[in-house]
Design goal:
Blueprint: H1 3-20, E1 35-40, H2 48-63, E2 68-73, H3 84-89, E3 95-96, H4 122-130, H5 132-138, E4 146-156, E5 158-161, E6 175-178, H6 182-189, E7 194-197, H7 203-209, E8 214-217, H8 219-224, E9 233-236, E10 241-249, H9 250-255, H10 258-293, E11 297-300, H11 303-313, H12 315-324, H13 326-338
Parallel strand pairs: 1-2, 1-3, 6-7, 9-11
Antiparallel strand pairs: 3-10, 4-10, 5-8, 5-9
Helix pairs in contact: 1-10, 2-10, 4-13
The structure holds succinic acid.
Family: Belongs to the bacterial solute-binding protein 7 family.
Protein name: C4-dicarboxylate ABC transporter
GO cellular component, one term: outer membrane-bounded periplasmic space
């Protein structure tokens, strides 16, 4: 059963129960006023997530004129990391699309996407997101009042520093900025580097001032934040994805009239497909932009070098597999072995 069908069934059941009990439906709260959806995120508009939020706004306002409007706040302009989830829970914003790395406090299962070298490629990440295992993670924060509506993929992460990172040993002693994820912290500890959790908005300054001297991200996030200007080398490691979960406040979502909720779900399905279709190209465009600027050398690893990084970082899986769920790891590995690249 799809997420949107499940949701609309539960909305119908909830509405019937309230009517039956003689309580006026919470949907009547929206009767006379247009619904405003505040959608906050931390990246630039020209990135996969930035484009997705704008596509969503455009499609919603076209389909539901006068009924629903969407206000998009990019670039941490309303709330940054560390505030946006609290803001969602108290209703100051209605939709977010944080990277799954930032959801650890609410769901350990989301940490699956952080396990280094778990997914062979972008294609495998997308297939996993569409699988039953992937869909189950969307529902893993319901007890905290957060509903996962969709996955948007950005792309695969690369590693950067002011020295070339070719072997795991090259990372020793470097201070790496990571997102707020224990798995990502352990990934850098595994190569004897010093990870430091830091919000996205602080990365450029952190690197410029030497608070950290290495980081990891997708090409679109490097380029749009000008992070490459303060990193001389980017190693194309593809060691893990940046995956977003489009999330909403469960109470807000359940209070929407069923027809509107259904339309929003359908629009999200279309927008998600479009974001995932565009993401690879946007990252390749920004890789080319970085190379063209000439400030940063992009290093390609040999297959043997890549195996060495993988071998050094893989022990992190064992440490986290119990809390994440061995069944999810197995599901991801099965998708790898069935992915198109595996048979190449
Ligand atoms: C994002 O793409 O939303 C930001 C990821 C990060 O914090 O590195």
């Amino acid at each position: 059963m799809t997420q949107s069908i499940k949701r609309s069934i539960s909305t119908t059941l909830l509405s019937s129960a309230l009517l039956f009990a003689g309580i006026s439906s919470i949907n009547s709260a929206w009767a006379d006023e247009p619904i405003v959806i505040k959608f906050s995120h931390v990246v630039a508009e020209q990135t996969p997530k930035g484009q997705g939020a704008l596509l969503f706004k455009e499609a919603v306002e076209r389909a539901l004129p006068g009924k629903v409007s969407v206000e998009v706040y990019p670039n941490s302009s309303l709330f940054g990391d560390g505030q946006e989830l609290d803001a969602l829970l108290i209703g100051d914003v209605h939709m977010l699309a944080p990277s799954t790395s930032k959801l650890e406090y609410y769901s350990k299962q989301t940490q699956l996407f952080d396990l280094p070298f778990l997914f062979d490629d972008f294609d495998a990440v997308e297939k996993f997101a569409k699988s039953d295992a992937g869909k189950s993670i969307l529902m893993s924060m319901e007890n905290s009042g957060i509903t996962g509506l969709a996955y948007w993929n950005n792309g695969m992460k690369q590693m950067s520093a002011n020295k070339p990172l070719k072997k795991p040993r090259d990372a020793r002693g470097l201070k790496f900025r990571v997102q707020a994820s224990n798995v990502l912290e352990d990934q850098y500890k595994a190569v004897r580097a010093n990870p430091r959790k830091m919000s996205f908005a602080e990365v450029y300054q952190g690197l410029q001032t030497g608070v950290v001297n290495g980081t990891e991200n997708t090409y679109s996030n490097y380029y749009s934040q000008k992070v490459h200007e303060v990193q001389k080398y980017i190693t194309e490691s593809d060691h893990g994805p940046v995956v977003y979960m489009v999330i909403t406040n469960t109470k807000f979502w359940d209070s929407l009239p069923a027809e509107i909720q259904r339309t929003l779900s359908e629009i999200l399905d279309d927008v998600s497909a479009e974001v995932n279709r565009q993401a690879y190209d946007l990252n390749m465009r920004d890789k080319a932009n970085i190379i063209a600027e000439g400030s940063t050398e992009v290093i390609t690893l040999t297959p043997d070098q890549k195996v060495k990084w993988r071998t050094a970082m893989e022990p992190v899986w064992k440490k986290h597999e119990k809390v994440i769920g061995p069944h999810l790891i197995e599901a991801a590995l099965n998708i790898n072995s069935n992915s198109s690249s595996a048979s190449d």
